[in-house]
Write a structure and sequence with these properties.
alpha/beta, 11 helices, 18 strands, homodimer
Chain lengths: ~375, ~375
């Protein structure tokens, strides 16, 4: 999934070039390139599909030259994650109705790739054998209020030393006090938004919980007993642009979490701990990058800090920064945009960007 | 005089394009253009000479297209203000030995141009009639520790409502306590570094106090009584590059203040109050530009300030800045350079720039 616009990462992330296509960590590779490399260890390249907004087709193919054009599934509009996954399902179903699927965001950070591969391989084994919707829970290291949490239910199994539990509840981003209780209890894991399932299981879940989406993407027919069945017909060929436009125009905008996961009874979770961040905010980036002796996270080659600490500074290549006397700030320069903001106030960035949009139009957002 | 490099104004001002060639106030004209326009009200364009480093010839002629090439006097190296003025004298003397001269920096701010013209016209009248070295004193509005001060001596005259005093002393930049005493006394004026004199008077002063400079620029001969006289000889033609190189190579580096003004007995001062700043520092710029309701001085069109006050922010055209949570900072973006620094620490900018030079060479300074 590579269609997001990462507005909380302004000014680096913009609608034209959102976060997944940026080397936001300063490591020489973009987030989608890092994600692609992780995936290549798990399955052959020809089995990888990128679902993204049509406007990003060129950048995807530039950044991932191993992909063929038909592996980039172009969404004509943004309708959240459920239609995105349904689109992928439709394409995969034409190729292999028996497929097991891993669904992952393209803009997350994963530090321990071996541990990650272990978890994924265990998960794919589980979903091949069980009608499960499987999600990944990350053992929390702090009472983060920026993540959703998964409450563990009864343990189901242990595969490759990975414990699998039934999911008791999904919870939205909690208040700090609640997050502290979650952390202390040991029963709550961060929801990483990474999913595994067989195509059969996710098809059945769409059919049950989001039939309007399923109908659009798969076409509905009735069997001899009057039950709706889902099958692909030529006139619903998702490789046809006009058909796809029509499908997306009619589809509701709904997340897979709200539309399917929270409503299903066969949702399970893998207890994981591989160093993960959704890199959803500058704070998340700060937490996950190396820092200097004064706890400054410096992304860029020529950043000179004086009497400054606890800052995250990101400069483009070739830009010199001299920064004096800042404690706990975000400083990000991105060609024609500069942001300076207290780290503790970063939730205001969306407000700033909205006001910028009102003032200057789409050019800078 | 347009040869300075304005290092305290980094990163806007650099050796390649120093402050006088920048639109540092964001008004659409560079400081030297503003200075030139002021001078055009005082004398014909053909009487204006720019003394600058040879490397700035092109930019001077670009920014002041009314000038002819021979009006730009190109110094082959930097030797402070006394040689700069001697060079100007030598050129002017060839054209008009009876000239009265106004010497001015090209990078100062003057707010009330009518009051300025009144002071200058009074001054030119005085030096035409008296063997005076005349300087301009600015009535101080605050105990500024960044300026030199002139102590008033006995009143000499009043011309066009401008009071002329003999100068008692020149003082270097004072400590704050001393500056407060200066301000309270009413006897101390800021030294604006703007001078008026007849060519005869300044020639005589060079002859007496800086004979080694005078000899280099004017050539020395002895009259029949054995006194040194100064005259121009063909082999000292300052329009000849090799001769000029030789003169500058041999000249000491010395300021007109130290070399002449502080040692002369015929120094007078005009009490002035026309809204002046040397724009020598970001603090001086801050004091002299308009501010928003939160006392932020914003130079640039698209600077959005949130919960910030007492800042000076300068952005190039087309650059968006969103700044949150800063109090009392300098923020300056200049293409490949960014500076963030507490206003109270701006004297450290020179140190930062020196360290940058050691680290990265001359490219960014």
């Amino acid at each position: 999934m590579a269609g997001g616009i990462g507005s909380r990462f302004w000014p680096l992330s913009t609608t034209n070039v959102p976060k997944q296509f940026l080397d936001i960590l300063g490591v020489g590779k973009t987030l989608i390139q890092l994600t692609f490399e992780r995936m290549k260890k798990i399955c052959p390249v020809e089995n990888i599909y990128i679902v993204t907004n049509a406007q990003y087709e060129t950048v995807v193919l530039q950044q991932l030259p191993e992909l063929k054009a038909e592996q980039v599934l172009k969404e004509p509009m943004r309708k959240n994650t459920a239609p995105c996954i349904a689109y992928g399902n439709a394409v995969i179903k034409q190729r292999n109705p028996q497929a097991n699927i891993l669904v992952t965001p393209s803009d997350h950070l994963i530090l321990n790739e071996t541990a990650f591969a272990n978890v994924i391989n265990a998960g794919l084994k589980i979903v091949a054998e069980n009608d499960f919707l499987l999600t990944i829970g990350i053992k929390p290291s702090r009472p983060d209020t920026g993540y959703g949490y998964i409450q563990l239910g009864k343990q189901f199994d242990e595969v490759n030393n990975i414990i699998v539990n039934k999911v008791k509840t999904f919870t939205e981003k909690p208040e700090l006090e609640m997050a502290k209780i979650f952390l202390k209890s040991g029963d709550f894991f961060w929801n990483a938004g990474i999913f595994m399932w067989s195509l059969k299981s996710i098809d059945a879940a769409f059919k049950e919980h989001l039939p309007e989406v399923a109908t659009l993407f798969y076409d509905a027919e009735k069997d001899e007993k009057g039950n709706i069945i889902f099958a692909y017909k030529t006139e619903r060929d998702v490789s046809d642009t006009a058909t796809l436009n029509s499908i997306y125009a009619q589809s509701p905008s709904v997340s897979i979490d709200y539309g399917v996961m929270e409503k299903s009874n066969n949702v399970y979770v893998l207890q994981s701990d591989f160093g993960w961040s959704d890199l959803g905010t500058w704070g998340a980036l700060y937490e996950n990058t190396s820092k200097d002796y004064a706890e400054n996270a410096l992304i860029g080659h020529d950043i000179m800090m004086y009497d400054s600490k606890n800052c995250v500074v990101s400069m483009p290549a070739g830009k010199i920064a001299i920064i004096e006397g800042l404690d706990g700030y975000i400083v990000v320069d991105s060609s024609d945009k500069l942001l300076i903001c207290r780290r503790e106030d970063e939730q205001r960035i969306r407000q700033f960007v909205n006001e910028l949009k009102m003032k200057k139009g789409e050019a800078y957002v």
